[in-house]
């Protein structure tokens, strides 16, 4: 392979390194808005897609640099101190610098994955907090729509016509609605359970009071029997 071809390959791989840096920076600084992703989602999201793309590029770059090193070794050197020898040495140094830069990208990629995960978790915590706040606010079932608006929700586009972002937003809305329905059901069941608990407590108290009353009556009857026995014995002794 000629010096020109090797130089062009090196330039292309150096440009790919710059693209990798851009993607890694994007991964590390990606900003998730609350509700943009399903809660507790660990995959099938923008992080996994972007990380997969970066990982694939890193692997390809590593393989291409290995081949390029072999191409540089196979180049003609010419006589010691000749122009060919200097060009070959220059290309070899350029490959070494580019490979070192690639290793730096690999380290930055691992750090970016950790940071992106933290950003996602922070957005999920914020989403949960918003849900809790929405649950704590009373909602009126008889509230009327604002002037100029319709009481019916806008009709959704068919899924085939939605963009990826729209599908993600709709999925998040569905999850939020499902969580709210679950919360309402749990609140209703909790209310019923509380009513049953209060009823049982009142019944227990009533039974305890009734038992005490019966105990008092039993003592009274016992005393009456004793008194009656005493009177009968007294009458017999008088006769």
From TrEMBL:
Annotated region described as Disordered, given as residue ranges: 135-173
Q: List the record's Gene Ontology CC terms alphabetically.
A: endoplasmic reticulum membrane; SNARE complex
Q: Which UniProt keywords apply?
A: Coiled coil, Endoplasmic reticulum, ER-Golgi transport, Membrane, Transmembrane, Transmembrane helix, Transport
Q: Which Pfam families match?
A: Sec20
For this protein, what is any one GO molecular function term? SNAP receptor activity
| Composition bias, Low complexity | 135-153
Every Sec20 C-terminal domain range: 172-238
Q: Topologically, how does it sit relative to the membrane? A: Single-pass type IV membrane protein
Q: What is its main location?
A: endoplasmic reticulum
InterPro entries documented for this protein: Sec20 (IPR005606), Sec20_C (IPR056173)
Task: Indicate the segments annotated as coiled coil, or none if absent.
Answer: 3-33
| Residues making up the signal peptide according to the UniProt record | none
Spell out the Basic and acidic residues composition-biased ranges.
Answer: 159-169
Q: Which GO terms describe its biological process?
A: retrograde vesicle-mediated transport, Golgi to endoplasmic reticulum
Q: Where in the cell is it found?
A: Endoplasmic reticulum membrane
Q: Which family is it part of?
A: Belongs to the SEC20 family.
Report the protein name in the record. Sec20 C-terminal domain-containing protein
Q: Which organism is it from?
A: Lachnellula suecica
